[in-house]
Amino acid sequence: MFEAVGFDLGETLIEYEGVALDWQREYPGALASMASLWGGCLNSAQIEAGSAVLRRYNTRLTPRTQEVDCATVFAELLCALGAPGEDALPLLDPAADAFFSVFRRRARAFSDVAASLAALRAAATPVGVLTDVPYGMPRELVLEDLSAAGLDVLASSTLTSVEVGLRKPNPGGFRALAGRCGCSPTAMLYVGNEQKDILGAKATGMVAALVWRDASPAPTWGQDLTLASLEWLVPVVLGR
């Protein structure tokens, strides 16, 4: 029996329907959404300049374990797009909102999530979330996604890579999650859908579960168990 359960967020609890995992396909529309703040119409050179900044911070293209905050990314983006004015600081927050709105329109919880979380709560098992966010996405937008997916119950126990300053598989974030859940990492189960989830959890002493909803064979990344659905999670947690 485990004292607590940790989860990854994107593609583990929440899916962003119709959005490619590396986001590159959506770059032009997201940049245009930013430029609409100052009535700008981007040319091909500006779109490429902005896309080059985004590719540099895209962790699916260039993995990193140290996190970068939103202000750093969007200050560079605004400069690349030629945002008007000597001081673009007032545009940082609305620019980030405009950019991320393109990707967050279709956030919803997987069908096996609500019942699993309810069963864990009924068993008095603490639950937490450790999620890597793209491009330093602010915490308030992550919480909005949780709310849109009907998962407000996880808001207070969610940690983002920006808050801990580290990205998976760095074990620092996993240790912070265990602390948030009030237990030792070795008493905790962590559930994710990517190799970095498994590697980070194992490096901290957690038991690692890979949730693999795909019909294709699950990869072997060193996970302790593989779940085709979260409906199998509660019997595992309770040792049944």
Task: Describe this structure in a few short sentences.
The chain is 39% helix and 13% strand.
Sheet with the most strands, sense and barrel status:
6 strands, parallel
Count every helix, treating DSSP H or I runs of 4 or more residues as helices: 10
Strand order of the largest sheet: 5-4-1-6-7-8
From the spread of the alpha carbons, the general shape counts as: elongated
Strand percent estimate: 5-15%
User: Poorly predicted ranges (pLDDT <50, ≥5 residues)?
Assistant: none
- Judged by helices, strands and strand pairing, the structural class is alpha/beta
Count of spatially separate domains: 2
Chart the SSEs and their pairings.
Blueprint: E1 4-7, E2 14-16, H1 27-35, H2 44-57, H3 70-81, H4 92-101, E3 107-109, H5 113-122, E4 127-131, H6 139-148, E5 158-160, H7 161-164, H8 171-181, E6 188-192, H9 195-203, E7 207-211, E8 225-227, H10 233-237
Parallel strand pairs: 1-4, 1-6, 4-5, 6-7, 7-8
Antiparallel strand pairs: 2-3
Helix pairs in contact: 1-2, 1-4, 2-3, 3-4
